[in-house]
Amino acid sequence: MTGTASMPPANTGSETAPLPPAPRPDDAPLLEVNNLVTHFPIRSGFFKRTTGWVKAVDGVSLSVKPNETVGIVGESGCGKTTLGRTILRLIEPTSGSIKVRGEDVVAASAGRMRDLRKEMQMVFQDPYASLNPRMPVHDIVSEPLRIHGTPKNEARDRAGEYLDAVGLLPEHGNRYPHEFSGGQRQRVGIARALTLEPDLIILDEPVSALDVSIQAQVINLLEDLQDRYDLSYLFIAHDLSVVRHISDRVVVMYLGKVAEVADRDELYASPGHPYTQALLSAVPVPDPDVELTRERVVLTGDLPSPANPPSGCRFRTRCPIAVAKCADEDPPLAEIAPDHWVSCHFPSV
Amino acid sequence: MADTAVGVHLASEQIAFDDKPQSFGRQAWKRFRSHKLAIVGVFLFLFLVLAFWIGPRVSSYEFDEINIVDRAQGPSGKHWFGTDDLGRDLFVRAMRGGQYSITISVVTGLMAAALGGIFGALAGYFGRVLDTGVSFMINCLLTINSLAILLVLGVKFQMTPMVIASLIAVLTWTRGARVVRALVLQFKEREFVLAARAAGASNLRIIWSHLLPNVAGALLVEATLLAGTAIILESTLSFLGLGVLPPETTLGTLISEAKGAIDTNPARVLIPGGLVTLIVLAVNFVGDGLRDALDPTHELEL
User: Fold this and answer.
1) Which positions in chain A touch B210 (Cβ < 8 Å)?
2) Residue A62's beta-bridge partner residues?
3) A176-195 residues touching B, CB cutoff 8 A
4) A283 and chain B: CB distance < 8 Å anywhere?
5) pLDDT tens digits along B103-158
6) Do B297 and A216 touch (CB under 8 A)?
C-alpha cells in the first residue's frame, strides 16, 4: 500500500488543543447535538416579507462518541445536509445547542469559532464543485493551515504528507483539480479536511457522486484514516448499504426529524419505525429467489413540503399503519430496546 | 454484502500523469501562445505603441507646426499622411493623437475593471443592503446616457485626457460590476467556498482567493470591451469638439477636423479611423487570449 509509504504525523490535536476545565470521561460524546432547529425564511413580495418557514431541521438530537462513526440516512430533502452544515455553523441554527467536547459551538464568538473549526471539518458531496478550479491542489489542501497561521513552506510540506496519506503523490499538488478524476478529487477533499487534524469529520454524501468501484476505495480509505488519526465520523448518506458498512450507529431522518436511532446491527436486523422498514425493503436482495418472494413495503406519494409538514406524526401521510391518533399526536423519540430509539406510536419490536 | 465489494486495493487509484507538472505561468503562457489572434493582438498593440511614441521623434515635423504653404495636401513622400488645413503634418498629429487614444483606452479599461470588480464582488458576496444599494446605483448609472453627461461636463470644464479617462470609467464600470455580481452570486454557493468557510477563512480571503480568480476572465473581457468603448466615446467627444484642447489632438479630433475634406481627401478620415479600429481590435484580441490563458481548465489546441 503506497499510501503508508511515509506516515504523516499522528493526530496531536487532542494534546495541544486547550482542554475544557473539567476532565471528561473517555467515552463522553465528542459531539452532542440537542434539539437543533434550522428554519429558512420564505420571503416573497416586493418588500421581501417573511411569509413562512422551511423547517429543514426541526428538533434533532444526536451524539457522536470518540472514534465512532454515526450514519445519517434519509431521502433527499429530509434535512441531512442542512444538519451537517449547521453543526459546522456554515448555516446558523435557529435554536438548539451543538456541543463539541462540552463546549457550545452556537454561543462561540467569532474568534473562538475559528479555533473550534480545527476540531470539525467537512468532506463535501460533489468533488467537482468542492475544489476551486483556479487553485493548484497543494494550495487547496494547505489553505486551512495557512488560514490558521502556518508558514507557507511548512503548510505545503504538510499538504504533501496528507496527499500521500490519501493515496495521492505529493507532486500531484502542482496540478489543478480538473486534471484529476472524481475519486481522486474526493481524495483531495479528504486531505483538505485532514490538515487541521480534526477529531470529527462530517462526511456529506462523500461517495454518492462516484462510480461504485471508486466508492469502495474511498470508503476503505476513510476507514484506514479513521484508525490512523483517531477520527470520529458523521456520515451522511442515502445509500443504506454504504451506511451499513461504515457506521457503528445509524440515525434515520424523515422531514427534519429523527425517526429512529439504533446500533447498526440492531437497526438493520429489527427496524422499529415503518419508515426504516420501507427504506430497508427498498434495498434489493442479491438472492433472486428471496428477491422474488419477499414482501416489500413500498412508500407511496412524495416527501411532504418541509414548509408545511403534516400534523402529528410527520410520516403519517405515507405510513402503511397510520391511524387517527397519528394525525393528532407527534410521537416522541422513545427507547423501545436498549439504545434503540424510535419515534412512532406503534413501533414493531 | 457491502463487505465483499470493498476488497479493492487502496493504491489502485494511484495515478501517473504522462506529462510533467508545470508552473501556472508556463501553462498560462502556453495557452496564450496557442491563441493565434492573441499573438496577433500583442504584436499589433506593440507596433502601435512603438509607432505612436517613436513616430513623432523620427519625423522632422512638430505636431503643432503650422505651414500654410503646404496646407490640405494628400499623402506624399514629404508628408506621409498629408497635411491639414493649417499645413500641420498629419502623420505626426495622428501619432500624437494615437498616444492619447491608447492611453485613455487602457486607463479606462483598468479603472472600470477595478471599480466593477470591487463593487460587483461586494454586492454579490454580502448581498442584503449592500447589494440593494449597489444595484440601485448601477441601475441609476445605466439609465443615464454617458455621452450626455460627458457632453455637459465637456462644455463646462476643459478636460485633460486623464480626466476624460476617469470620467468614462466612472460612467461605464457598471457593466463589469453586473457581470461580476452575477458570477459571485453563483460561485459563493459552491462547495469550495463552504469548505473555505469551514476552515475558518475570512470574507476577504474568500473574495480574494476564491471568488475573484473565478470571475477574473469574464471581468477581463468586459475590460477590453470597455477599452474599446472608451476610445469610441473619447473620439465622439473630440469629434464634437469637447475633448482635449487644441493644438493637442486625438484620433477623434483628427476625424472631426477632416469631415469637410471627406470628398477631396478621404485619407484624412480613413487613416485616424483605421488607427482607432486597430487599437480596439488589438486590445480585444489580447483580452480574449488572456481570458483563456488565465483559465487552467482551458484545453490546449495542440
Assistant:
1) 132, 135
2) A33
3) 176, 178-181, 183-184, 187, 189, 192
4) no
5) 998 999 999 999 999 999 999 999 888 999 999 998 888 888 878 888 888 788 77
6) no
Q: How near does any CA of chain A get to the CA of B292, in Å? A: 12
**Domain B26-293 belongs to what topology?**
MetI-like fold (1.10.3720)
pTM greater than 0.90 (yes/no) = no
- Which of A232, A244, A227, A225 lies closest to A167 in space, CA to CA? A225
B201 in contact with A at a CB cutoff of 8 Å?
A: yes
- Contacts of residue B2 in chain A, CB cutoff 8 Å? 241-242, 244-245
Distance CA A282, CA A299 (A): 9
Residues A101 and A24 sit within 8 Å (Cβ to Cβ): yes
Question: Got the DSSP string for A212-228?
Answer: HHHHHHHHHHHHHHHHH
Nearest to A118 by CA among A199, A16, A206, A191: A199
Structure ipTM: 0.84
Q: Is the N-terminal amide bond of B247 cis, ω within 30° of 0?
A: yes
What's CA B302's distance to the chain center, in Å?
Answer: 28
The answer to whether B10 contacts A167, with C-beta atoms less than 8 Å apart, is: yes
Grid coordinates representing B285 are 484580441
Q: Would you give per-residue pLDDT tens digits along chain A (349 residues)?
A: 444 444 444 444 444 445 445 556 667 889 999 999 999 988 877 777 888 889 999 999 999 999 999 999 998 888 999 999 999 999 999 999 999 998 899 988 988 999 999 999 999 999 989 999 889 999 999 999 999 999 999 999 999 999 999 999 888 888 889 889 899 999 999 999 999 999 999 999 999 888 888 999 999 999 999 999 999 999 999 888 899 999 999 999 999 999 999 999 999 999 999 999 998 888 888 888 887 887 777 787 788 888 888 998 999 999 888 888 999 889 999 999 888 999 999 988 6
Tell me the residue type at A340. H
Domain positions in chain B: 26-293
The CA–CA distances, whole Å, from B258 to A191, A225, B30, B91 equal 67, 77, 44, 14
Give A 96-115 residues with CB within 8 A of chain B.
Answer: 113-114
CA gap A258, A35 in Å, rounded: 10
